[in-house]
Amino acid sequence: MASLLLSPAEQDYIICGVESGFRADGRGSLDRREVSLRTGMISQANGSARCRIGNLGVGTDVLVGVKAEVNSWTPGEPEDVGSIVCNVECSPSAAQEFEGRGAEEINVELTQLLDRILNGPQSGLNLKNLCIIPKQAYWVLHIDALVLDVKGSIIDTLVWATRAALMSTSLPSVVVETISDEKGNIQSEFDVVDDPDNLTPLEGVEHLPISVTFSQIGKRYVVDASEQEEAVTQARLTVAVSPAMEI
């Protein structure tokens, strides 16, 4: 993902340093840069967070908002669960390769990665709790992530910001009523309560996984690769792990 061009001498310096057990910025192989994480960044969203790894201007910065909306069930969809829709966009100002059409490929890659982590039982979220009325209505969580700046470690920054945004997400209460029509048929109706003081947090957010990305440089691996280190990375491995140590 790095667009930084390094001279052969610079590349050799980074690779030899990592293989010798030290990095250009003084960190050890498993040391991270400073992490800044804040929630409640978007007032119009049901949940939001901003995560930055590294110092301002020389780190990676991601803003995530979660917006919940009610969807009507259609045949062919699961009958009693809600859903999560992920979308990741990289700002053209975040890195040179994101200008013009250059961001399309990385946007798709990051969106699919986030979707694989969050959609399904592996996320820990209780998607059944997002169902309002089976085969009738359910909540959809739209997760929109904006990559504001990229100086290495984009995947972990994205996952951490998304996890924090979901942990800060609350849904409006829903009142479900069962009524009978003139023919005696029983039907269910619901009403979303528009009360900011009557909100429900998502169930299962404490089980959301967190990611760790390892970058292979020479014959060794490092975590939280810098922009310079990503320029010489030979391979990358991301592992998402839940608090229950499930991979």
Give an overview of the whole structure.
- It is a single chain.
- The two termini are 24 Å apart.
- The model has no long low-confidence stretch (mean pLDDT 89).
- The strands form four sheets. Strands 1, 2, 3, 4, 5 and 6 form a six-stranded mixed β-sheet that branches. Strands 12-11-13 form a three-stranded antiparallel β-sheet.
- The protein has helices at 8-19, 103-118, 154-167, 227-230, and strands spanning 35-39, 47-53, 60-72, 83-90, 131-133, 137-149, 170-172, 174-180, 186-192, 199-201, 210-217, 220-223, 235-241.
- β2 (47-53) and β3 form a beta hairpin.
- It is α+β, with helices and mostly antiparallel strands and 247 residues long.
- It is elongated and about 85 Å long.
- 19% of the residues lie in helices and 36% in strands.
How is the topology of this model organized?
Elements: H1 8-19, E1 35-39, E2 47-53, E3 60-72, E4 83-90, H2 103-118, E5 131-133, E6 137-149, H3 154-167, E7 170-172, E8 174-180, E9 186-192, E10 199-201, E11 210-217, E12 220-223, H4 227-230, E13 235-241
Parallel strand pairs: 4-6
Antiparallel strand pairs: 1-2, 2-3, 3-6, 5-6, 7-10, 8-9, 11-12, 11-13
Any descriptors?
247 residues; alpha+beta; 6-stranded mixed beta sheet; 4 helices; 19% helix
How would you summarize what this structure contains?
The protein has helices spanning about 10-20, 105-120, 155-165, 225-230; strands at about 35-40, 45-55, 60-70, 85-90, 130-135, 135-150, 170, 175-180, 185-190, 200, 210-215, 220-225, 235-240. It is α+β, with helices and mostly antiparallel strands and about 250 residues long.
